[in-house]
């Protein structure tokens, strides 16, 4: 079993990734979705957490060997950046969604030397917007952002296009397609649900798949 499959299996086992093609969730945008991700649950599941954090650390070393500092996204990426930073004996900090309104009014927390080679740690990538904002904030502060390590990505075309346009590399330790494959193999969902799920991934605004799920 690959690391990606092992992480996917772990996420499904603790309910961090819910797949409900027959009873879809409703996103804030109003879009019906067969998937809901809550990777914060990883932190309360030590066995799965060990696998995920080691995978993040290993990915940093293999994909970004020049990395000097890890920066977590606020708030979901902070703990993962801290744990991976501990495993790698590497400095870490995090980037707020906006500047504080008191004290030093920081947006970036932690020491960030000029031209530091940084990897951003994110819990999931959907359209890529929030991760790109973090990368831009770090670049504006003088960091050399090598890329992102995320736990999970939907693999949506909009997200892929936005990351490419912003010249941001992302490596996810597992992804939507792998989660679906593992979910089918383990009986979490049925084989005939696969096409509907993949159609959602390809075009989230098209809800025609809902009526096809039996």
What does this structure look like?
The chain is of the alpha/beta class. It has helices spanning 3-13, 46-63, 76-88, 129-140, 157-165, 176-185, 194-202; strands spanning 17-19, 25-26, 32-33, 35-37, 69-73, 92-95, 108-109, 117-125, 144-153, 170-175. The protein is globular, with a radius of gyration of 18 Å. The mean pLDDT is 90.
Task: Give the secondary structure arrangement, pairings included.
Elements: H1 3-13, E1 17-19, E2 25-26, E3 32-33, E4 35-37, H2 46-63, E5 69-73, H3 76-88, E6 92-95, E7 108-109, E8 117-125, H4 129-140, E9 144-153, H5 157-165, E10 170-175, H6 176-185, H7 194-202
Parallel strand pairs: 5-6, 5-8, 8-9, 9-10
Antiparallel strand pairs: 1-4, 2-3, 6-7
In short:
This protein is of the alpha/beta class and 214 residues long. The chain has seven helices and ten strands.
What fraction of the residues are assigned to beta strands by DSSP?
15-25%
Roughly how many Å apart are the termini? 30 Å
- Characterize the largest beta sheet: strand count, sense, and whether it forms a barrel: 6 strands, mixed
Strand line-up of the largest beta sheet: 7-6-5-8-9-10
Secondary-structure class: alpha/beta
């Amino acid at each position: 079993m690959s690391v990606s499959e092992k992480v996917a299996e772990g996420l499904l086992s603790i309910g961090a990734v819910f797949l409900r093609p027959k009873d879809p969730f409703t996103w804030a945008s109003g879009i019906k979705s067969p998937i809901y991700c809550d990777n914060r649950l990883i932190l309360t599941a030590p066995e799965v957490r060990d696998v995920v954090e080691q995978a993040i650390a290993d990915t940093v070393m293999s994909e970004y060997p020049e990395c000097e500092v890890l920066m977590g996204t606020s708030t979901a990426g902070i703990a993962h950046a801290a744990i991976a930073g501990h495993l790698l004996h590497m400095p870490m900090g995090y980037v707020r969604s906006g500047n504080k309104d008191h004290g030093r009014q920081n947006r970036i927390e932690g020491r960030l030397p000029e031209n530091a080679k940084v990897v951003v740690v994110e819990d999931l990538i959907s359209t890529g917007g929030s991760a790109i904002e973090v990368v831009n904030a770090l670049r504006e502060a003088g960091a050399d952002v090598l890329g992102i390590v995320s736990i999970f990505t939907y693999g949506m075309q909009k997200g892929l296009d936005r990351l490419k346009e912003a010249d941001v590399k992302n490596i996810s330790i597992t992804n939507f397609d792998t989660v679906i494959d593992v979910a089918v193999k383990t009986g979490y969902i049925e084989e005939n649900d696969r096409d509907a799920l993949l159609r959602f991934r390809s075009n989230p605004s098209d809800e025609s798949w809902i009526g096809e799920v039996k």
